[in-house]
Write a structure and sequence with these properties.
It is a single chain. The chain has helices spanning 2-27, 61-80, 104-118, 128-135, 138-141, 173-183, 196-211, 231-238, 251-263, 278-285, 308-319, 325-344, 350-355, 357-362, and strands at 46-54, 84-86, 89-99, 122-125, 144-147, 162-164, 187-192, 215-219, 244-248, 269-272, 294-297, 375-376, 382-383, 388-392, 395-399. The chain is globular, with a radius of gyration of 25 Å. Helix 2 (61-80) crosses helix 12, helix 3 (104-118) crosses helix 4 and helix 9 (251-263) packs across helix 10. Mean pLDDT is 89; it is low at 1-41. Helix content is 43%, strand content 18%.
Length: 402
C-alpha cells in the first residue's frame, strides 16, 4: 500500500514537471517568422525583428541615437500602416537595439546576441569598426549588415551580405580639397577622430592633398572617447600656421574642436569629414558664423528634394529636433529593406532579400525619397549623388560637384 502511494505521488510530480516545462517552452518563443504559425488563412500578423548595434552611450551617443531614430521612424510608419505583406502574410517590424559604445568587439558580441536571441535577418550598425567586426561571421550566421559608414573598404572586401548605406567618402576628396585650397591655401593640419574610419579618411585625404601640391604641416588624431579638452593638441597644430584644419568624427565633439580652434585665434578654413554634420555642429557652436570657411556634407534640412519638408516636419514632431542625414539615410534604408523583403517573397531568406534590394529601391514610394538613390552597386553600396556645401557668411551654400 505504501509503495502504491509513492508511485502515485511520483507520477503526479512527473506530470506537473512536464506540464511546467511545456509552458515555459511555449512562452520563450521570440517574435519572428520562424516562431510564428504560418497560417495565412488565420489572419495572424507575424513579426520581423530588425537588429541595431551602435553607440547609445558615451561621446558618440547622439550620433548613434540619430541613426537609430531613422530606423525606428521607418518601422513605426510601416507598423502604423498595418504592416507589410510578404507571400500572402502580414508582418510588422520590431527594432531590437543594443549599445556597443562605439567599440567593434562590443558590436560583434551584440550581433551574435541579436541573431541567436532575436533571429534578426538584418542588423544596422553605424561605424566601420562595427561593420568589419560583423563581416567576420555575418555570411555564416546569415544576416545582412545595414552598414551606415562611408568607408569604401566595407564593400571592397566582397561580403555578399553587406549593404553600404551612405556614399563612399573618397568621392569627397577632390571637391573638399579644391574648395579649401582655392579659398584658404595649401597648408593643412590633420585632427580627425582616432577611429579606424578617421585614420582611413586621413590617409586618403593626405595622398590627394599632396598630389594637388599641398602640404600636411601637422598630422595627429583625437580620441573622442578619452579627450574632451582639445586646447593642447590644437595649440600644437596651430604653431605650424596651417591654412586649413581637417576635423571630423561625431558632430558634437567635432564642433567643440572647431569652436576651440576659433577661440585660439584660428581664422582659416575647415574640411569636415562626412560623419559630422553642419546643422548638428551649429547646436554646439551656437551659429554658423564660427564655422565660416568650412566645407562638408549638405545638411538634409537644406536639401531640395520634394519629400524633405514633410519628412522634417514629421521627424521634428516625433523627436523634437531637425533630422540629419544619418537619420534620413537610415530611414530610407529601412523602407528599402521592407520593399526588398516584399520583392523577395521572404522575411528571413537573406540571400533573396539582398538580391531584391534593387527592386526595393525601384519600389520605394515617392514620399520616402528624401534622397535620390537610383541603384545599388554590384559591391552592395547605394549609388547616390554627393551633396556638398560650404558655410559662408553664416549661411549654408551649395557646392557643385563635377
Amino acid at each position: 500500500m505504501k509503495k502504491m502511494k509513492w508511485l502515485l505521488m511520483f507520477s503526479l510530480i512527473f506530470v506537473l514537471v512536464f506540464s511546467l516545462a511545456a509552458c515555459n517552452s511555449t512562452s520563450s518563443n521570440t517574435s519572428g517568422e520562424g516562431n510564428q504559425k504560418d497560417d495565412k488563412s488565420s489572419g495572424e500578423v507575424g513579426t520581423v525583428n530588425i537588429g541595431y548595434t551602435g553607440p547609445l552611450s558615451g561621446p558618440a551617443a547622439f550620433y548613434g541615437e540619430r541613426t537609430l531614430n531613422g530606423v525606428k521612424m521607418a518601422a513605426d510608419e510601416v507598423n502604423e500602416a498595418g504592416g507589410f505583406e510578404v507571400n500572402g502574410k502580414k508582418y510588422k517590424l520590431n527594432i531590437v537595439s543594443l549599445d556597443d559604445k562605439y567599440l567593434p568587439n562590443e558590436a560583434g558580441s551584440n550581433a551574435k546576441r541579436l541573431v541567436q536571441e532575436n533571429k534578426t535577418p538584418i542588423i544596422f550598425t553605424p561605424h566601420s569598426g562595427g561593420v568589419f567586426a560583423l563581416q567576420v561571421f555575418n555570411q555564416m550566421d546569415k544576416f545582412i549588415i545595414g552598414a551606415y559608414t562611408s568607408e569604401p573598404k566595407v564593400t571592397e572586401v566582397g561580403n555578399k551580405l553587406t549593404v553600404r548605406i551612405p556614399p563612399r567618402y573618397d568621392g569627397y576628396l577632390k571637391p573638399f580639397t579644391d574648395y579649401a585650397m582655392e579659398n584658404f591655401g595649401k597648408k593643412v593640419a590633420f585632427l580627425p577622430t582616432a577611429s579606424q574610419y578617421g585614420k582611413d579618411w586621413a590617409t586618403a585625404l593626405k595622398a590627394h592633398w599632396e598630389k594637388e601640391g599641398g602640404k600636411v604641416v601637422y598630422n595627429s588624431a583625437i580620441d573622442f572617447a578619452k579627450e574632451t579638452d582639445f586646447f593642447t593638441i590644437l595649440t600644437n597644430a596651430l604653431k605650424e600656421n596651417p591654412d586649413v584644419l581637417f576635423i571630423g568624427g561625431a558632430s558634437e565633439p567635432t564642433a567643440k574642436v572647431a569652436k576651440q580652434a576659433r577661440e585660439l585665434g584660428f581664422k582659416g578654413g575647415f574640411i569636415v569629414m562626412d560623419q559630422a554634420k553642419f546643422d548638428e555642429m551649429k547646436a554646439v557652436t551656437g551659429s554658423y558664423d564660427m564655422l565660416n570657411g568650412s566645407v562638408g556634407v549638405m545638411p538634409l534640412v537644406d536639401s531640395t528634394e520634394e519629400a524633405i519638408p514633410d519628412f522634417v516636419k514629421r521627424y521634428n514632431e516625433k523627436y523634437g529636433e531637425d533630422p540629419g542625414s544619418e537619420a534620413g539615410l537610415n530611414y530610407i534604408a529601412m523602407h528599402v529593406f521592407v520593399e526588398a523583403m516584399k520583392a523577395a517573397g521572404s522575411v528571413d531568406d537573406v540571400e533573396k532579400i539582398r538580391a531584391g534590394m534593387q527592386k526595393g529601391l525601384d519600389n520605394l514610394p515617392d514620399d520616402k525619397k528624401i534622397y535620390i538613390i537610383p541603384k545599388i552597386g554590384e559591391d552592395g553600396g547605394f549609388d547616390a549623388d554627393l551633396t556638398i556645401a560650404a558655410v559662408e557668411d553664416g549661411k549654408i551654400v551649395p557646392i557643385k560637384v563635377d
